[in-house]
User: Which sequence fits this backbone?
């Protein structure tokens, strides 16, 4: 308990801006690698995969905040918005890379992919669901919408998580360790919430 | 005999690198100016063994490989294949063949002429390269081994040696990697058993010391590090077809009209050219239609994919 208290005390002194700064480091690293030919012989594909992976990781991190608090007492709640926004940032860059560098704005093929390919459809669903969450992430939106409506809207993150991880799993050619790890994490994070919801009746909302 | 086809051309026929790069630079400048739509499509005028496109660099060809025996990432084979013992190397030849046996590689290849071929290489993942191979025609080897009447297929297997092939320590695929061709495909003069790349011995990550190259089929047909060749009358089991028969057929001919169930095959990204490597239309039979389409006359290629 003392440990948890001191961890939380230390975390309170961490400025949220630091999370944004650290979360942006991979962009700088990718830019540097791009300019120094560090992304291999197929840099567009590497960039696309790295950005998508970062989006997935930040999304899972944001979904881990509540379970972490409930299980260990360590609260990263102050940083959850930053984690969510970073997830959207990387997902959006991943989508841009796909459109501009991979498909190279060949709209016929993009249209066919978006309507026919399950993994592309899942990815687009993930992006479309995350966009309103990013757009309403500000305190101002929370005040304007009211806490109840805002919380309801932001439960879309669970569906977005399923879509984004589904997008990753469905495009994989084999059941790799990464595929198992990402899908296992998401399932655990969602099941924890289901278990807590079933364990006790919903608390009265503020 | 190559007489039906354009004879092997030499390096003198390849676009010099400086011209190629200046052309690419000019193209890049035009694209940057927003004039991309006005450019004619870059068609491939090629009806032989030597693709007219400039080959990918040695570095590109040897650092971007799908060779799951060494790991699932494209950089894994270059990183992890160094410890593979490729000499001595033995190949088991069995099935409906006059001279079966376990051959030392040098004995297997003895007396067979080495050809230089520049082939387009199209991966089922929708990227492509142009590769200057050295190797023997598979048909020459089959003639030397003596194919018996009634044989209809040739099967191939890759080495299984988990202590040197770290990817095999996990059941990522059902090892050994297996591939196969119909006998007429195997006897086609385009079908190569490659032993070299850029006039140097084949690097391990590219399937040393002996790999198949079937340029009109998706790359996964071009099995690497072959240790067994079986001549048979029954269609051999093939690894990706065993893995997922809905997605990977036995034939696996490059076909922009038949999509992979999960992604389009209409176009491909040519490796090289960095971040802005251009996407280009995929050609039927990877541009080798004139040479090989007759093999598949009367077949419904949307069903026999």
Assistant:
């Amino acid at each position: 308990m003392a440990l948890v208290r001191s961890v939380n005390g230390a975390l309170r002194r961490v400025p949220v801006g630091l999370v944004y700064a650290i979360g942006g480091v991979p962009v700088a690293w990718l830019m540097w690698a791009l300019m120094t030919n560090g992304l291999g012989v197929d840099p567009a594909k590497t960039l696309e995969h790295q950005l998508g992976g970062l989006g997935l990781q930040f999304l899972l991190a944001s979904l881990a905040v509540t379970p972490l608090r409930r299980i260990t007492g360590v609260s990263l709640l102050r940083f959850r918005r930053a984690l969510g926004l970073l997830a959207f940032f990387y997902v959006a860059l991943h989508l841009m890379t796909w459109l501009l560098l991979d498909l190279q704005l060949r709209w016929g093929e993009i249209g066919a992919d978006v309507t026919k390919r399950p993994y592309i459809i899942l990815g687009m669903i993930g992006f479309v669901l995350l966009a309103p969450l990013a757009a309403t992430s500000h305190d101002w939106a929370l005040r304007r919408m009211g806490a109840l409506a805002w919380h309801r809207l932001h439960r879309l993150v669970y569906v977005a998580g399923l879509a984004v991880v589904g997008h990753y799993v469905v495009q994989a050619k084999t059941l790799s360790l990464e595929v198992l790890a990402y899908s296992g994490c998401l399932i655990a994070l969602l099941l924890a919430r289901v278990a807590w919801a079933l364990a006790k009746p919903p608390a009265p909302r503020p | 005999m190559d007489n039906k086809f354009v004879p092997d051309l030499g390096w003198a026929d390849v676009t010099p690198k400086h011209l190629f790069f200046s052309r690419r630079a000019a193209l890049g400048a035009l694209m940057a100016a927003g004039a991309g739509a006005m450019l004619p499509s870059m068609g491939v005028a090629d009806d032989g063994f030597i693709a007219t496109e400039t080959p990918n660099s040695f570095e590109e060809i040897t650092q971007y490989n799908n060779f799951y025996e060494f790991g699932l990432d494209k950089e894994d084979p270059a990183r992890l294949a160094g410890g593979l013992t490729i000499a001595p190397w033995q190949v088991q030849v069995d099935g409906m063949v006059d001279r079966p046996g376990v051959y030392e590689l040098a004995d297997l290849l003895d007396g067979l002429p080495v050809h230089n071929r520049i082939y387009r290489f199209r991966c089922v993942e929708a990227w492509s390269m142009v590769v200057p191979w050295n190797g023997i025609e598979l048909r020459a080897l089959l003639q030397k081994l003596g194919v018996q009447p009634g044989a209809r297929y040739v099967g191939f297997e890759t080495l299984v040696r988990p202590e040197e092939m770290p990817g095999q320590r996990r059941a990522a695929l059902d090892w050994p990697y297996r591939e196969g061709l119909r006998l007429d495909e195997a006897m086609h003069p385009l079908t190569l058993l490659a032993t070299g790349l850029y006039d140097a011995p084949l690097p391990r990550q590219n399937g040393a010391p002996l790999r198949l190259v079937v340029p009109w089929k998706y790359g996964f047909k071009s099995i690497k590090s072959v240790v067994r060749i079986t001549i048979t009358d029954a269609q051999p089991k093939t690894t990706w077809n065993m893995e997922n028969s809905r997605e990977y057929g036995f034939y696996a001919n490059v076909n922009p009209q038949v999509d992979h169930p999960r992604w389009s095959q209409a176009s491909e990204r040519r490796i090289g050219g960095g971040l802005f490597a251009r996407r280009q239309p995929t050609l039927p039979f990877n541009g080798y239609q004139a040479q090989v389409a007759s093999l598949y006359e009367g077949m419904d290629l949307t069903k026999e994919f």
